[in-house]
Amino acid sequence: MPLYSKQIQDYTWANKPSVAPLGQIICVTDVGENGSLWRGDGTKWVRLNPIKIFSLSAPFSSTGSTSVVTLATITIPAGLMGANGKLKIYPLWSTTNNANVKTLRAIFSGSTCTTMTSQSVPNNSGLLIIRNINSESVQKCSSGLVAGIGASFGSIASNTVDTTAATTLVISGQLAVGTDTLTLEDLFIEVV
Questions:
Q1: Residue pLDDT, tens place only, 153-164
Q2: Which of 10, 11, 88, 128 has the most neighbouring CB atoms within 10 Å?
């Protein structure tokens, strides 16, 4: 018989207990690939591990237009990020390999966080991190870095999105020349 055992209760994000007793662990079944574990700190629920909240099921292409095209829309549940949480966004996209500009944007609840452009390369793999900065309504992210880590010529984008409410992340694409193609090959998003 184990010296210590505790039953872990299952909840959905919407029906988890509002009280978070210190040390209690729960499983939230509808957040993450196979659910996610959360521990009470006496006031709120704190995630125990990074959580993958989205994975693209099939590639999505844009061609034949120079208009902005929505490639993916992801809902971030209310309160999931927390005051110092981060959304890590990993897009993989392919493009027509020519000198024409192809643009991928991440838009967080209506505010453009980053704009990534591609020219004369067949594919890109990026990393964008949207950071809550000591508040659930103040974010910062790099505004123009394809690789996601390192130096950038873009400025730091500052947003004021209330993440205590459900928010959306839109990934969009735009072509300078309509005969080119931009394909979102893969995309996954984690909350850490």
A1: 667 888 899 999
A2: 128
As beta bridge partners, residue 156 has: 142
Q: In the structure encoding, which two tokens stand for residue 118, read together?
A: 């591609």
Structure tokens given for 103: 């643009």
Distances (CA, A) of 20 to 59, 69, 148: 39, 42, 35
Residues 2 and 73: their CA atoms lie apart, in Å, by: 45
CB of 67 closer than 8 Å to CB of 48: no
The β-bridge partners of 191 are 51, 87
For 117-150, write each residue's pLDDT tens digit.
888 889 888 888 999 999 999 999 876 555 556 5
Q: What is the SS3 assignment for 58?
A: coil
- For residue 176, the model assigns a pLDDT of 96
Report yes or no: 9 and 26 within 8 Å, Cβ to Cβ: yes
- Contact in structure between 43 and 22 (CB atoms under 8 Å): no
